[in-house]
Amino acid sequence: MNSFLNMLNANFKQFLRDKTALFFTLAFPVLFIIMFGLVFSGTDKINYDVALVNEDDSQISQGIVQAFSQVSIFSVQDNPRDDSLQLLTDGKLKAVIILPEGLGQAALSGQTTEVQVYYDGSQTSVNQIILPVVKEILQSINREITQTPVLFEISEETIQTKDMSMMSFFIPGVLAMSIMFLGIYSAMPLIQQREKKILKRLGASPISRSTIIFSQVVLRLGLAVLQTVIIIVIGQLMFGVEILGNWWLLLGLVMLGTLSFISLGFLVASLAKTEEGAMPIVQLIQFPMMFLSGIFFPLEYMPDFMRPVVNALPLTYLGDAFRQVMVDGAPAFPLGVDLLVVTGWLVVCMAISVRFFRWE
């Protein structure tokens, strides 16, 4: 019995010394729950952006506009028809409702008017939520005017938009996440080599320090390209995700993103003295970015109080840039802003790393 207790105690102490196992066993489930809770805590407050184009400007059409503005799930825009349809095509609106000229006069005469509703038929939120609400509003106004006949008839028009399928949204996010992992974990071999005095011996050899660092960077750039090819091929062959953007721009973005996260990895190597000390720092960086950067969930799901954190993460901008370049997705930020922020992280992290990195 004593032998068993001694072994149990020894195994327990060994488990406590394994920081990675300790994290994934105890801390990760808690962080996972917290991150998902923060992401989806704002989902009950989601507003659907719709445009209501009033081409009639009668008392009845004004009443319809007022009724729509009082629906809590709608954020109603008043734009011209062409502008509204373009915003819908760009994925910036969920639906466009057209109140045609003559609607009020026709209603007073008891005639049926066709109300056009444009939307992307592939979006379940439109089919399950928005269209029924539109129908209910028009039916309610119909009942206020007269019980019979039917005054408003909805004409549903589906158009091709830039709003994407789940996998088209997901694949660029996976690529961004993979590059983040690849870059941040560049800290580990440097720390291992420093702990084993390899960096010290290499520093005393004819090999220059810049050559040592450059070899690490080139290796990970090559791995990033390989990752990109694998992810794109799987996305195309298995899920039909079509890459719509410029391939050279995508390659440049992969290079920039990889360099940015490599610099973040070097920063970790500058701050941590040991591999065990580096792991908590890496986990503290990567897990918030996985769940709060919008690579798996649209940024509109994020509660307002989390936005300052979301907007500070480099993965937010890299994922958004990939989505724009790869699948022509609706941007959360202008592409130039994405590139500027990712480049800024590269410059700042590299400058700090150069200042504080220790070779021994």
From TrEMBL:
<feature type="transmembrane region" description="Helical">
    <location>
        <begin position="332"/>
        <end position="357"/>
    </location>
</feature>
<dbReference type="InterPro" id="IPR052902">
    <property type="entry name" value="ABC-2_transporter"/>
</dbReference>
<keyword id="KW-1003">Cell membrane</keyword>
<feature type="transmembrane region" description="Helical">
    <location>
        <begin position="281"/>
        <end position="299"/>
    </location>
</feature>
<protein>
    <recommendedName>
        <fullName>Transport permease protein</fullName>
    </recommendedName>
</protein>
<keyword id="KW-1133">Transmembrane helix</keyword>
<dbReference type="Pfam" id="PF12698">
    <property type="entry name" value="ABC2_membrane_3"/>
</dbReference>
<feature type="domain" description="ABC transmembrane type-2">
    <location>
        <begin position="135"/>
        <end position="360"/>
    </location>
</feature>
<keyword id="KW-0813">Transport</keyword>
<dbReference type="GO" id="GO:0140359">
    <property type="term" value="F:ABC-type transporter activity"/>
</dbReference>
<feature type="transmembrane region" description="Helical">
    <location>
        <begin position="21"/>
        <end position="40"/>
    </location>
</feature>
<feature type="transmembrane region" description="Helical">
    <location>
        <begin position="169"/>
        <end position="191"/>
    </location>
</feature>
<feature type="transmembrane region" description="Helical">
    <location>
        <begin position="212"/>
        <end position="235"/>
    </location>
</feature>
<dbReference type="InterPro" id="IPR000412">
    <property type="entry name" value="ABC_2_transport"/>
</dbReference>
<keyword id="KW-0472">Membrane</keyword>
<dbReference type="InterPro" id="IPR013525">
    <property type="entry name" value="ABC2_TM"/>
</dbReference>
<dbReference type="GO" id="GO:0043190">
    <property type="term" value="C:ATP-binding cassette (ABC) transporter complex"/>
</dbReference>
<keyword id="KW-0812">Transmembrane</keyword>
<feature type="transmembrane region" description="Helical">
    <location>
        <begin position="247"/>
        <end position="269"/>
    </location>
</feature>
<dbReference type="InterPro" id="IPR047817">
    <property type="entry name" value="ABC2_TM_bact-type"/>
</dbReference>
<comment type="similarity">
    <text>Belongs to the ABC-2 integral membrane protein family.</text>
</comment>
